[in-house]
Each structure stands twice: as structure tokens, then as C-alpha cells.
Amino acid sequence: MKLLLVFLFFSFIVSAQTPQEYGKVMVAKLASPEFYGRGYVNDGCGIAADFIESKFKEYGLKAYNGNYKQEFSFDVNTFPTVVEMSIDGIELVTGKEFVVSPISGSSKGKYSLMWIDSTNFPKIIEDMKSMRMGGSTAFIFDHKGITDKELLGKFNEFKYYLTSIGPVITIEEEKFTWSVGRQSVKNTMVSVLRTKVSKDIEEVSFNIQQKLEKDYEVANVIGYIEGKCKKESIVISAHYDHLGMMGQKVYFPGANDNASGTSMLLYLAKYYATHQPKHNIVFMSFAGEEAGILGSKYYTEHPLFPLEKIKFLTNLDLAGTGDEGITVVNATLHKKQFKKLGKINIKENYLEKVKLRGPAANSDHYFFTQKGVPAFFIYTNGGIKAYHDVYDKSETLPLTEFNDYSQLLIDFFNKL
Ligand SMILES: [Zn+2]
Fold it and tell me: Cα separation of 147 and 144, whole Å?
């Protein structure tokens, strides 16, 4: 008997995983190499969608029309094979010392360099008119010292024009912020760290293979839990897609953006599966956010139940820190709900701060707001600063406030 009790006690400890422990396992999984950065190379996005679907099934969520997936497609620019660059024979580290532009085309070969900066820019424009460019010149742009907005505009315009002639290099001071492109220019476009370039470079070489995928198929993954009162629904949303891969060697893990929000969504799905809510709770895992909030846009154009039946939507993106609390986008639109959230937080002493912010078109809540659905977008503040780069890894993402944050959300949803 005693032994049995001891056994039961320990099995209780093993199974009683905190939200943070659950989150860490989930973020590590979603941000691992097997998901290829949840983008458009090696079917990363599709693998992530299958994984989320399997979790919805495991937790017993219901599906609309017998299908968790809502498919749609868009054109997307990809780098499925090689992304290499060297300067005077020295290879740069892809993703860390240089990145390819999201709208880059392909280039392969060796090039001499033409340096374009504030000192020679106007003259070069004049010269270009009479110059016949060969196929072996790359153009390097140095923005330093150009502060005049109009001139900077012209500088950038000229840069895009030159992509039709040869590869274009932009000098970046500190850090890269990558994204997803949906079209492409003719030649390669890259950004290189200033520490890697100098005016006496003799030769650069590229081996960059780009492919514009037409009508690439992705899917929103959606499931729900029936509430005691089935008339209205609370929606919890989070995008699961990220930036994918830059060639076969480099992937963008997207731990904070948005394996963290996806993990919070999955945690809440698991929680509500055993704690029946008052209202229906619908879990929407959106695709295509990084490509221009496309998944949520598609959903609002093809809703699975009337949008008017959404009592409130909470979109979770960047849920991985919280040292300095959270920010609530649309707080100024929904003062009553914001007050409620703030009150719970103070009473229970969950987070350092619940900050107010006005409307912004910066994540998946946006098109719902446009259609009149009351919605918040919440993100965490403080802690690590990795964003849209190869450093946004699960190993360094602390999920500092995951326990309190999840409890705050649950208390809030239960009071809506
Ligand atoms: Zn995001």
C-alpha cells in the first residue's frame, strides 16, 4: 500500500507539468531543424501544420466540416538550394555575415565591384546613362551619411533599377532582419555587414539559387472546444509560420516569433480540453503571417462560422519573454476588456506591466478588427532581442512569464 502511494505520488509529479515546462518542450520542437523554419523550403510550413493538427486531435478538439485545415495559396520567393557569397576568395557565413534579400533573384559567378555612396552617387547616375554595363559588375551601396529623405529615396530607387543589370549589395551596420518575399528581381540582392567590406575589394562571387513558387499551398489549422453556452465563441489565434530557409544550410528557427505564441495556443487548447469553458473556444493557427498576414486575411474572407459570433479574439505573437510585462494592441478600442485584463493582473500579481497600445496592422488580429470583430493582439516585452534572424532560437528563449501569462489569459477568457 505504502509503495503504491509512493508510486502514485511520483507519477503525479512527473505528469504535473507546468505551463512553462510544456511551453519549453513545444517551442524547442517547433523551432527545431525538423521544421525547417516553418517556411517554404522542404515543406516546413506543411510539417508544422501536420504537427499542430496532430496536437488538436490528441487533445480532442472538434473540427469544422470534418477538417482542421483551411487551405489557401500564394506566390512566394524561395531559396531552396545554395546561398553562398565570397569576398576576395573568403566565404561569408550565410545568415550571420550576409543575408540574401527576400526578393532576390539568382546570380552565379565572379564580379568586380562598383562602390556607390554619398560622394559619387549623383555622378554615377549621370555616367550610367552613357555607360554600357557588362555582365560582370556588382554594385555595392553604402547609405552612410545620406540623411536627406528624398535623396535616400532616389538612392534606393537606383538600387532597384540596378538589380536588372547585376547583383546589388547593401551595407548593413549591425544586424539583419529577414522576411518573406512574394516576388523577385532579376539578379541577386544581398546585405553584408560593414565589418566584412572595404573599398579595396577586388572581386565578389555569388552562388545564389532562387525560385519563385507560384500558388504555394499552405493551411490555417483550426479547431474548437464547445462551451457550456454554444452561442458565442472566444477565439485564440497565433501564426505558426516563420521565414523558412536560406539555402539548405541555414534555417530561421522563429522561437519567439512565433513558436512561443503557437505553444501558448496549444497549451490553452490542452487546458480547455479538460476544463470546459463558458463559451466555445476556437483555436486558429494561422499560416502566411510573415508573408503579409495572409492566413488571417483569408480566414476573414472565408470564415467557418459567422464573424459576428466571435465575442472576442486574442491574438498571441511573441509570447516568449515578459520580463517587462505585455503590450496590448487595440487596448484603446476595447477599453472595457482592457480594464478587465489589467484588473486581473493587479489583483493576482501576475505580470510586471500591462501596457496599452492603439490599433496597429502588425499581426493576425488586423483583418478581424477591420471587419468589426473585437480583438486584442498581445505580445511580451523585455528579455532577448533576437527578431527575424538566425538567433531567434529556443535555447536562448526563456519563456520567463509563461506560467503567469497563461494564467492571466485563462482568467481573462473565463471572465469575458
Ligand atoms: Zn510573428
Answer: 8
